[in-house]
Design goal:
By secondary structure, this protein is an alpha/beta fold. The chain has 3 domains: about 170 residues, Cytidine Deaminase, domain 2 (3-Layer(aba) Sandwich), CATH 3.40.140; about 150 residues, 3-Layer(aba) Sandwich (Cytidine Deaminase, domain 2), CATH 3.40.140; about 50 residues, no CATH class. About 35% of the residues lie in helices and about 20% in strands. α6 links the parallel β7 and β8. α1 packs antiparallel against α7.
Length: about 400
């Protein structure tokens, strides 16, 4: 099969729509269930590239949660702590496989953004991962294969209409890629940059110590950015993205957006949040929404009279700004990556507030000296990769 007809394009009025191989060869994918759409396939193919490269770079199973052609989360399959399992709503599933841990991390980093995601998995989908996916609100999944039990579980989602795509892991695209905009064809060489430890060898700060764990996080940050709509900044800790700022016109806005998401990820681990007494009837998505409001500046929306009773058994105390600041001070050794240079030191100042210790960015700004000076002020480690990673 060298083409698949789609229901419509990005929007229902954009017809006809299809994916196909221009050279007449067979597509490297097979739809095992459902009817994926145009945006589903964009997310699937971008997500697959990301997890394939993460697996190659780290040797660990990888997963990503995509929304609107950018990752909401990406992670490798490291074991979950008891706290992470609880904030990701998987503490009732027992011990999970490495691949399931990767998806729990990818989905859990920013659950608000991951709602209705398209999933990419680096390895054959096992039953643990399928069990996790089955109970989340998601549009579909792409993987190199599925166990029989996993596939049967996934086929039960969305009244049998859940999108399940199998991709040939040996497929290698042409070196030249093309797309059309306004009837005009654009052509460029594919971004085949190999992101490995050598990319981080040029350390420009006084502190030059990058532990192995931070080196893995740097790889995750830069591979994630490679498939994130630019401008983009990615915060990573413990083998997973914890905050991604995508598609912003200003780099400081990327850094702030990603930093706020990283802060929210850490705030959710505070005992004051972990011990919220939700109504038994409140689902996971509603709990996620409630937590997001509770830890933010609009907390009164869920605490005022007549509203808290809809969500909680007992009215929670206000999570004060001072309490949040004190808790966030415990988030340390975070890595941040940027798809282009930081033009001003304000990005470093903002990153520091979210516990950043390690930074990877291309370098090349006329103010590099000021950016390095700011890193040295906080004893940060910064590597200049010399490579920009714009993605559109």
């Amino acid at each position: 099969m060298n083409e698949i007809q789609l229901k419509y394009g990005c929007n229902p009025n954009q017809k006809p729509s299809r994916i196909f191989m221009e050279d007449g060869s067979d597509l490297p994918v097979e739809v095992l269930n459902g009817r994926p759409g145009y945006i589903n396939f964009l997310d699937a193919f971008n997500g697959w590239q990301l997890v394939k490269e993460l697996k190659e770079a780290t040797g660990l199973p990888a997963a990503t949660s995509f929304k609107h052609v950018s990752p909401a989360g990406a992670a490798v399959g490291l074991p979950l702590t008891e706290t992470l399992a609880k904030i990701y709503w998987v503490d009732d599933l027992g011990e999970l496989s490495p691949l399931a841990c990767a998806y729990a991390r990818a989905r859990g980093a920013d659950r608000m953004s991951s709602f209705g995601d398209f999933i990419a998995l680096s390895d054959v989908c096992d039953v643990d991962t399928a069990r996790l996916i089955k109970r989340e609100v998601s549009d579909g999944v792409i993987a190199p294969g599925y166990t029989e039990e996993a596939l049967n579980l996934l086929k039960q989602k969305k009244n049998g209409n859940y999108n399940v795509i199998k991709i040939d892991p040996t497929y290698k695209p042409a070196e030249i890629e093309r797309k059309q905009v306004y009837g005009i064809t654009f052509e460029q060489g594919r971004n085949e940059l190999d992101i490995n430890k050598d990319l981080f060898a040029n350390i420009v700060t006084k502190n030059k110590n990058i532990p192995d764990e931070a080196l893995v996080d740097m790889k995750i940050a830069m591979i994630t950015l490679k498939y994130t709509q630019s401008n983009s900044v990615c915060y990573v800790k413990g083998g997973q993205a914890i905050g991604i700022g995508a598609g912003q016109q200003s780099r400081i806005h990327c850094t702030r957006l990603a930093g706020q998401k990283a802060d929210n990820w850490y705030l959710r681990q505070c005992p004051k949040v972990l011990n919220l007494e939700f109504l038994d009837t409140l689902g996971r998505a509603d709990r996620d929404n409630t937590i997001d409001v509770y830890i933010g500046d609009e907390y009164e929306d869920v605490l005022r009279e007549g509203e808290w009773q809809k969500r909680f058994k007992v009215k929670p105390e206000v999570f004060t700004r001072e309490e949040k600041k004190a808790w966030l001070a415990g988030n340390t050794d975070v890595t941040v990556g940027s798809d282009a240079f930081f033009p001003f030191s304000d990005n470093i100042e903002r990153a520091y507030k979210s516990g950043v210790k390690y930074i990877a960015e291309p370098g090349g700004s006329v103010r590099d000296d000021l950016v390095i000076e700011c890193c040295d002020k906080y004893d940060m480690v910064m590597a200049f990769t010399g490579i920009r990673l714009f993605h559109h």
